[in-house]
Amino acid sequence: MKKACVIGYPIAHSRSPIIHNYWLKTYGIEGLYEKREVRPEDLADFLTNLVDHGYVGCNVTIPHKEQALRLIPILDGVVRKTGSLNTVYLENGTLKATSTDGEGFYQNLMATIPGFDLTEKTAIILGAGGSARAIIERLLRAGLAQIKIVNRTPSKAEELAALFGPKVSLLTGDRFGIESKSAALLVNTTSQGMKGQPPLEVELSALPEGAVVADLVYVPLKTEFLKNAEARGLRTVGGLGMLLHQATVGFEKWFGKRPLVTNELYRLVAKDVDPDFT
Fold first, then answer.
1. Which residues pair with 22 in a beta bridge?
2. DSSP characters for 160-225?
3. Per 3-state DSSP, what percentage of the chain is helix, strand, and coil (rounded to 5)?
4. CATH code, 212
5. pLDDT band with cut points at 50, 70 and 90 for residue 278
6. Is the pLDDT of residue 173 over 90?
7. What predicted TM-score, i.e. pTM, was given to this entire model?
8. What are phi and psi of 4, to 5 degrees?
9. How far is CA 272 from CA 15, 16, 115, 124, 265, in A?
10. For a surface tag, which of 27, 33, 174, 197 has the fewest beta carbons within 10 Å of its beta carbon?
11. Boundaries of domain holding 173
12. Which residues form the catalytic set?
């Protein structure tokens, strides 16, 4: 029986087992996906001896992502470009890693807003962390003309601009209202608005009528940021779908089947996030 897991410290909050074990059951695959709490000092042993621990692969979450980069022998192009990984897998006996956040975001965006054309458009990204890096990399491959980054620490945004080239630039807060007039997509990659975190306060009035507003936060399922966007008549994309879509890549690498993200799965995980979800 093949086994995979998600590792972090702590790890109790992870909903990944709900997703992967649902797929294993749905497709009749003999396998198991579980949580493994791995202390930082034990990470090197765990990853380098993954098979001995009984696993064909794992998801990597905080605080292990940075250290894991130095432990995996082969990193794919997305990881090398973004400096961020979340999925480890064995291929022909060799440990490899990828990042599925960007692809998960993109597939969720396309599933939620069918036909949404990003070609030669402008996007504004709030935040400059690992998720922002992954999303920027994927959006550039989708043909965006410009990506502008708003971040509390401007130097972090400037680092991403230097990494990704002339299509990516820093957007200072005082220019947000002006620049958002031409934005087709606005994405929150920060933790603001998450349960227990300060609210995300962004002025949405200048966004054009056809703009899409996306939030990576999924606790709560619909943030005040998204509610404000909907009140303005804008199309919105929630964070839970990204969690589901990014998981498909790892599942295929570990268990050999590319799973589908269904309404039934969404409802299952949404009920775990919010028992009152209907």
1. none
2. HHHHH-TTEEE--GGGHHHHGGG-SEEEE-SSTTSTTSPPP----TTS-TT-EEEE---SSSS-HH
3. 40, 20, 40
4. 3.40.50.720
5. confident
6. no
7. 0.95
8. -135, 170
9. 8, 11, 30, 31, 11
10. 174
11. 114-238
12. 65
